[in-house]
Amino acid sequence: MSISTIQQLPWNRIHEAAPRAGIYSWYYEPYIGDYDVNKTICDVKQLKEHNDTSGAAGLLRSFLQQNLLSYFRQDPYQVELKGPLKPRHIGSADHDQDVSASVIERLLEDPERLRPLRDVLKQSTPYFASPLYVGMSDCLRTRLLRHKHLIHQFRSQSAATNVENSFADEETGFAHRIARRRIPPDRLFVVTCEIPSVSSLNVDAENLLNRIFYPILGRN
Q: Which of 181, 55, 63 is nearest to 117 (CA)?
């Protein structure tokens, strides 16, 4: 039983996916534009000239959160704490996603470091990245075009309303989470691998990959 070569497709070439069975994973390529980088470096330098180190550090932290980390934040866990003869506590635990203090310190010392750091992050996917979503289908092209359609649909809806919805269907839920986080679709790409659906091999591969890599916006 042969496995086809892995194929990487950008957002505007999703339609080129093979009309055959296989598995796929979605990735987001981090992108921070030159204007935003230049403005942040300039603002940080000005704040430092006025001895506002705290303000400069806050600006850098906010910049990295807004332009990078927010796209990868994990959804809250539902937790329960209990013990013998103890009160029971339930609730949600949010992902504490903060920038390392040492990173901020080095950027404060030399704000120009932001440029090469941005370039490294941009080239990091998929080689260093966790997938956003891992799925399988008996027809990769049909499934991926369906994802693309739903992402467009939910982005249009979220532009008009911020209503939070939850979806039992994973395919629909993934598209909604992309729209809710305002992830730019043109920075998304997909990696496919054709796997014969005989004996549900593609199903088993998808199941195991989800449990190895824990996609940020997918099922575990």
A: 63
